[in-house]
Amino acid sequence: MRIDIVSLFPEFVAQIAGHGVVGRAQERGLIALQGWNPRDYAEGNYRRVDDRPFGGGPGMVMLIDPLRACIAAARAADPASAKVVYLSPQGAPLNQAKVRALADEPRLILLCGRYEGVDERLIAAEVDEELSIGDYVLSGGELAAAVVIDAVARLQDGALNDAESAAQDSFDADGGLLDCPHYTRPVEHELGTVPEVLMSGNHAEIARWRRQQALGRTWLRRPDLLDEAGLSKADRELLEA
Ligand code: ADE
Predict the structure, then answer these.
(1) Which protein residues touch ligand 1 with a CB less than 6 Å away?
(2) Residues 149, 230: one domain?
(3) Which of 140, 137, 138 is nearest to 112 (CA)?
(4) What are the tens digits of pLDDT across the range 168-187?
(5) Does the predicted interface ipTM exceed a cut of 0.85?
(6) Per the record's keyword annotation, is Protease included, yes or no (predicted)?
């Protein structure tokens, strides 16, 4: 898939593209990233990209025209039609179901706002989806775009070395529960001992223990997720055990 990032800080794209799963997904040709700077599409000596808000108040609002021209240039770089996603605190909350849907798109254009925001008319005309990565305010959409890029890149076929690991993560495992705890060597450590069942070699027992841990953690930490998880009768019994 191809992801274009419209941002006043295109260096940011190089930063996220160079590391970890995203870097590897790029090397393997699974995702292609390109940054686009609206300032390159701004007119005049000052290449102005923002102005004061009508109605007064602090901060600056990003102008329609540089953003529109920049998005048009990004769209024209590839014939596949792109979904335009605007990252903002006003957006719908990002979750793993949304990430999965985005990961299936052939193309995304991620629009990163700065200052107080973007002229609402540009959003109405160009944006397909507005997404927030949480109920807090960042100084721009770039970190949120990085979150989307990472989450989407690791779901591309072949991006992860262990094909299983995506499926077993929190939220992907059997209907949106938190992940179970994990342990590695040594078995005995001054910080504690590895639960015995994990060394039993009994795969059915191990699976049952993991499911029970996942259910218990979700119940304790994120009860809101349990309501949507659609628990089976066996799950309810595990949870009550
Ligand atoms: N831009 C600023 N804050 C944001 C947030 N919480 N999510 C997405 N984009 C943002």
Answers:
(1) 87-89, 132-134, 136-138, 141, 144
(2) no
(3) 140
(4) 666 765 678 999 999 999 99
(5) yes
(6) no
